[in-house]
Amino acid sequence: MWLNDQKIIPSAIRRYRKALAASTPRHIVIDGLFDQQKLDSICAVLQQEQYWHSQKHSYSALYVDESQWHATPDTERFVQRDLWQGYIAVANHAQSAIALEFLQFLRGTEFMALLSKIFDVQVTDIHVAKPEINTNFFRLGARDFVNQHADDSPGREICLLLYLNKDWSNEQGGELVFMGKDDHSVTIAPLYNRCVLFDPSSEGSEHWVKAVTHGAAAAYRYNVTSWYWSE
Ligand SMILES: O=C(O)CCC(=O)C(=O)O
Ligand SMILES: [Fe+2]
């Protein structure tokens, strides 16, 4: 049981739908959606250092190697963060399986049906060439960043962000910020078991992550990013 049943009863889903319709950008924040014990086990897996791989993107190129990165001016640097390499982790360390299983759950029919209901759109992987590359664990250290961007793309209907940071405090930074409307930006702290769902094509959905502070008690800010597509 990956989901906390209380969070998916019909009255809760009605509330999510209302909140979605009333917000700019179209987004909802659900705290405690997933089973806490399961997430605890996943967090333990993610502490292993050797399965994280640095990823860098500029605004003009999706993947940038070290030499290209050096030649990229700061203003063109878009993302620097670490990606968890699930298949390598599981091949080397069987106890990592729970973390990969969770990513697979997030792409499974049960969870995608829940998202379809909340957003009133049918999301499916039938035309997605490599579904698994749409759902990942990332971590951000104090030198990393996710600068302002939009996640919209034709057919991409829903973005999920899930935070896995126990005892995260305000001084640690790392908030997600949506541009919002008329200078009303929306700031969301990356708290444990907090799930943000948003429509990447809605007004004000451009977003970025505030810097994680140096000397933060926890060195890294962990999250899942998952994208969902319609037919
Ligand atoms: O980590 C976050 O809060 C946002 C990540 C993000 O914007 C992305 O993965 O596209
Ligand atoms: Fe994003």
Give structural attributes:
231 residues, Jelly Rolls, globular, binds 2-oxoglutaric acid, binds fe (ii) ion, peptidyl-proline dioxygenase activity, Oxoglu/Fe-dep_dioxygenase_dom, iron, 2OG-Fe(II) oxygenase
Task: Summarize this structure briefly.
Residues 125-230 form the Fe2OG dioxygenase domain. The chain has 231 residues and is α+β, with helices and mostly antiparallel strands.
Structure commentary:
The protein is α+β, with helices and mostly antiparallel strands. It has one domain: Jelly Rolls, CATH 2.60.120. The protein is built from 6 helices and 11 strands. Strands 1, 2, 3, 4, 5, 6, 7, 8, 9, 10 and 11 form an 11-stranded antiparallel sheet that branches. Strand 7 and strand 8 (184-188) form a beta hairpin. The chain starts with 9 loop residues before the first helix and ends with a strand. The model has no long low-confidence stretch (mean pLDDT 95). 2-oxoglutaric acid (AKG) binds at residues 146, 151, 161, 176, 207, 209, 223, 225. 2-oxoglutaric acid (AKG) is lined by residues 146, 151, 161, 176, 207, 209, 223, 225. Residues 125-230 form the Fe2OG dioxygenase domain. Belongs to the iron/ascorbate-dependent oxidoreductase family. GO terms for molecular function: metal ion binding; peptidyl-proline dioxygenase activity. Keywords: Iron, Metal-binding, Oxidoreductase. This is 2OG-Fe(II) oxygenase.
